[in-house]
Amino acid sequence: MKIHVLSPRVFFMSWLGKMSFLGLLVLFVAGFFCSCSNSVATPIPVATPIYTYSVVNTYPHDSNAFTQGLVFEDGALFEGTGLYGSSTLRRVELETGNIMQIHELPDQYFGEGITIYSSEIIQLTWKSHIGFVYEKDSFELLQEFDYLTEGWGITHDGERLIMSDGTSALYFLDPETLEEIGRIDVYDSDGPVTRLNELEYVQGEIYANVWQTDQIAIIAPQTGEVIGWIDMEGLLGPEDRTNHVDVLNGIAYDAENERLFVTGKLWPKLFEIELVAVND
Q1: What is the pTM of this model?
Q2: Distances in Å between the alpha carbon of 36 and those of 42, 91, 245?
Q3: pLDDT tens, 84-94?
Q4: What SS3 state is found at 133?
Q5: 251-266, pLDDT tens digit by residue?
Q6: What spatial distance separates the first Cα and last Cα of the chain, rounded to whole Å?
Q7: What gap in Å lies between CA 79 and CA 198, rounded to an integer?
Q8: How many of the other CB atoms lie within 10 Å of CB of 86?
Q9: In what side-by-side order are the strands of the sheet with 141-146?
Q10: How many domains does the chain divide into?
């Protein structure tokens, strides 16, 4: 039997090689488990919630009202209508659709969205860059104010007015000075969401009609992200869809009774709806 005695240098190199192999093996195993751990921890994208609707009640609506703004307060609807020569501000009885009070805008103004802040009604106009402030009970004109964009929809969150102009932007206005104090851009997973029209603030979220669609966007006011979509397709039946009717527009919320109302331009009906989740 021959016994080979390794020299110190050869022994050291052999030991170092084995340790290098073991070190690489340890690193590989550690990396594998870290990789697995990381992959498990990666959040799975959550789809934007989609809702449809259930009709709770149907009410009459003036089919000559080109609805631009809608608010529910003190047991009645307040409505702003458009078109040159026939733009109005109205107080409407919900159950009958009867006009209880009306203020007609001068012919040169195309009325747009309305909101009620404290004891005042704020109404926008389309391309005139002029808004109006009225005393809520009497409809007395208190003041005019101007803005740089077009006026489309308006609501408020209790502290700020929130205004749309048909783009993807929402503007925040100081309710006392009526000057811009901030803005957000509205987006979803496909990018900017444009044609934002009539607005309503509902339980901490902004509901926005998207013009010329049957869609209502639910928007996070902190970020502008669309956190839900309401598909209103089929709300107005074919028997009511004459050549006279126009697009879905008009959202009002009864905060005290948690009732949501929607209608459209020149629609003969106004609907109380409940949301129904589609992709639970």
Answers
A1: 0.83
A2: 10, 63, 58
A3: 999 999 999 99
A4: strand
A5: 999 999 999 999 999 9
A6: 78
A7: 11
A8: 15
A9: 111-117, 120-125, 130-135, 141-146
A10: 2
Distance CA 204, CA 190 (A): 24
Instruction: Dump pLDDT digits (tens) for 146-164.
Output: 999 999 999 999 999 999 9
Measured between alpha carbons, how far is 72 from 79 in angstroms, rounded to an integer? Answer: 9
| Pair 56, 97 in one domain | yes
Cα–Cα distances in angstroms (integers) from residue 200 to residues 8, 157, 221, in the given order? 84, 9, 12
Tokens of 228: 């839900």
pLDDT digits (tens, 9 = 90+) for 221-255: 999 999 999 999 999 998 898 778 999 999 999 99
Same domain, 24 and 80: no
Q: Which residues of 231-256 are buried (b: 16+ CB within 10 A; e: fewer)?
A: bbeebbeeeeeeeebebbbbbbbbee
Residue of 179, 178, 171, 227 lying closest to 199 (CA atoms): 171
CB 230 within 8 A of CB 215: yes
Residue with tokens 């209608």: 263
Give the residue among 163, 172, 231, 232 at the shortest CA–CA distance from 197. Answer: 163
Q: Check residue 225 and report its DSSP letter.
A: B
Same domain as 111, residue 22: no
Q: Which residues constitute the domain of residue 6?
A: 1-42
**149 and 71, same structural domain?**
yes
H or E stretch covering 170: strand 169-173
Q: In this structure, are 13 and 88 located in the same domain?
A: no
